[in-house]
Amino acid sequence: MRILALETSCDETAAALADISGTRRIHVRLLSSVVSSQIALHAPYGGVVPFLAQREHRKNISAVLAQALAEPAKRLKKYNSTPTKKQRTAPAARYLTYEPELLEEFTVLTEKFSSLIATIDAIAVTKGPGLEPALWVGVNAARALATLWHKPLVGVNHLEGHIFANYLENKQIIFPALALIVSGGHTELVLITEPGKYKIIGETRDDAAGEAFDKAAKILGLPYPGGPQISQHAQNGDRTFFDLPRPMLHSADLDFSFSGLKTALLYLVRPISKKTPTAGMPPYSPDHLNDLCASFEQAVLDVLIAKTAKALKKYRPQTLIIGGGVSANTELRKQFSAMITKDFPHTLLLLAPLSFTGDNAAMIAVAGYFSAQKGKFSRPNTLRADGGLDLA
Ligand code: KG4
Ligand code: ZN
User: Fold this and answer.
1) Residues with a CB atom less than 6 Å from ligand 1
2) Looking at residues 272-295, what average pLDDT do you find?
3) How far apart are CA 91 and CA 165, in angstroms?
4) What gap in Å lies between CA 278 and CA 390, rounded to an integer?
5) Quick count: other Cβ atoms within 10 Å of Cβ 199?
6) How confident is the model at residue 274 (pLDDT cuts 50, 70, 90)?
7) 287 vs 154 pLDDT, higher one
8) The model's pTM
9) Residue 391 CA to ligand 2 centre (angstroms)
10) Which of 10, 131, 282, 392 could form a disulfide with 288 if both were Cys (CB 3.0 to 4.6 A apart)?
11) What is the pLDDT of residues 368-382, one digit of tens each?
């Protein structure tokens, strides 16, 4: 099945084209994956500004889509395709009331890539969770394209994308699996009996892990997004230098809480910098900055590892999947690998491929494939963006 996917849930505009096959063994041939990041635009605000994200998605989506189609179109000779007939644009226009300029851009694309478009079997798009104004751009674009090209449409849960990113490297999940999703908006432990069947067994009660990293970075005067910054400084710091709390480490459930940790960091930094504001102490001293980052990162990791281990003990899944933006964290990958080797040697650990830990459309194509296989299609006129969409 050839799937074109779009993703605009946060601050990356992404499109991908993939050939996916199989039921038990999944095979993915990624034809293209284009991600246009808005990080530089949002950085001065210290976080993603939803209406700016929406504006940028509108501005970029046609170019990102064109790029995702251009490479595969060059290699098209291999396919026997019938070019699409000249389409009427009026039925698609109704989905682009807020993005009218896209109609013209999509019409140009349709003519330029008609032979390749004819080979596409379905269009997948992230419908949630995420920033609703941002999500709508992708959803409207997908509704219009599905109408223009007469293709089935699949609405995808963004978190399913993070769960299945491993298939992009053709690594197979053995079910039942446990997924730890750690991103800017989510920290969830999910039991998966098969694609599409999820049970959330733990989640954050306040800040998500990535959000905690971003807020901590802000406190320490580091630029957005904070995760990679903290991770980098932490590599040269002492992880035991500062004593930070491990919220909910011993709670009976599998939930998380990170907002107290951020507050503890704030109180830790304040007195030091006030006492010796000019002595180059934290957050100004590079030495202590590294120690603060390392101690903070370790506090987050200790809780993530302990709760995941607890879930592994209780549910005994065959595979542990870790995905989402925070799974790019070097130390997280190292410490989870060590924990699995030591305590759960029979559990398969699948860390999201480093090139697909952050938001991308390739993972949305894979998640869309599973829905398409089950015939879970949406009609363009009923598909909606849902910022608070649940996984289960
Ligand atoms: O999955 P993602 O790209 O977007 C959401 O769906 O939220 O995750 C973004 C989050 C940000 O909070 C970012 O700071 C965090 O992932 N992140 C990291 C690292 N790289 C990105 N956190 C810790 N260490 C990293 N290396
Ligand atoms: Zn994400």
Assistant:
1) 10, 183-185, 210-211, 213-214, 225-228, 231, 324-326, 328-329, 358-359
2) 64
3) 34
4) 48
5) 13
6) low
7) 154
8) 0.94
9) 13
10) 282
11) 999 999 999 999 999
